[in-house]
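hey so i finally got around to running both of the ones u sent me last week. sorry it took forever, my laptop kept dying halfway thru and i had to restart like 3 times lol. anyway pasting them below in the order u listed, first the sequence line then the structure token line for each. didnt double check formatting much so if smth looks off just lmk and ill redo it

first one:
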Amino acid sequence: MSEFFPAVLGVDGCRAGWLSVLWSGPGAEVKLHHQFTDVLAELAAIIAVDMPIGLPDQNGRKAEAEARKVLGRRSSSVFSTPSEAAVQAKDWETACLINLQHSNPPRKLSKQSFGLVPKIREIDVLISPLLQRKVHEVHPEVSFYHMNERQPLQFNKKTKEGENERQNLLKCAGFPIFDLSLQIYRRKLVARDDIVDACACAWTARRIQLKLAQSYPFKPEVNGRGLQMQIKA
């Protein structure tokens, strides 16, 4: 995949906002955005973002359930998407109470899941069925699963072994990997695994562009706003 092609964008949430990787052939560019509106302004044919798109009436979606099935030992990396009502809550305690009423069986939210709510909400107010032709939900671990010949990865991404495992897969898949030690962003703003995950998202964006991506589930669920709820890889 060394030839030039219409640019695609992989996006991962990070502490400072949104970390993107723009890929259009032999090279790729890392960029930090503070708002998702800035991501949408990038000149990319396809945007693939590691964040739930399309909120359910009830906690959880088929997309997460099917992704977990294939990930095996890495299945814990896939969080359940909170109910649409819980996403509007201002604090974790309130979100838990609301989600209990919008889940079967009743289920609270983990603090880790609630930590994603501001970014989920940020996308949700911008997204539309029309925009979903360009902006797609992905999950890096599912992308790496496909890079790894449909096998779950061995190591956690936060470990050095896990970082090397993912970097090697990206290289073998034809992606122009980065020397992570040379990145200009401070670690407390952008973690090394944020960059690696964004690269995986860009790889999937290219697969979407080529109509090679697999979808979880194959036939997407659709929420009350007409948004498709589907992870692509």
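and the second one:
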Amino acid sequence: MYNTDIPSRAELPSSKQLIRSTIMAVVSAVILLFTVVLPSEYGLDPTGIGRTLGLTDMGEIKTRLAQEAAADEAATLAARSATPALAATSKAIATEAAQSSAPSASSGSGVVWRDEMTFILAPGQGTEVKLKMKEGEKTLFSWTVQGGVVNFDTHGDSLVRSISYEKGRSVPSDDGELVAAFTGNHGWFWRNRGQADVKVVLRTSGQYSDLKQVQ
């Protein structure tokens, strides 16, 4: 014997009501997809709302982390398949190149720097610095790592475009000129894949209107 009353036919929703509810649910899901999910998970912001809410930056960082993790896994598999002699030779060459390139990146060559930022990265930690630049503007930069090396991605992004200028793995320093391919944010993402804290020092000078660190 059941204690629950069976609803009458009049109490049940009509087919028209069910269709309307389904349409409303689909529309709500599409709105959430374009305003929340795509910006926060994939860095895609077709409406511009994600940038306003700060979700797009989070999605861009997640995307870069996923790409970096995939690159690390591929590099690990390649290293395991290499012979010990080849691995030792590659390590010696990389160490020699890092030692020879470090002084030039930190010297500055007489440049009068406009801004300088310093931050500490714990093992596994990453950070990003962005400059607001107009298309064609140029910025001189120099960054060095004290206590280790980092993986980096020099890139740019706007509401409609993105670009990766250069990527590197286990790099102690870099310097040069960043030329904006389009109007938007341009800068660097670093990650410490080592076993100890490292200190990153960034110096910039040139044509940009804003400089900020994105955690």
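quick thing i noticed on the 2nd:
The CA atoms of residues 87 and 93 lie 10 Å apart.
anyway thats it, ttyl
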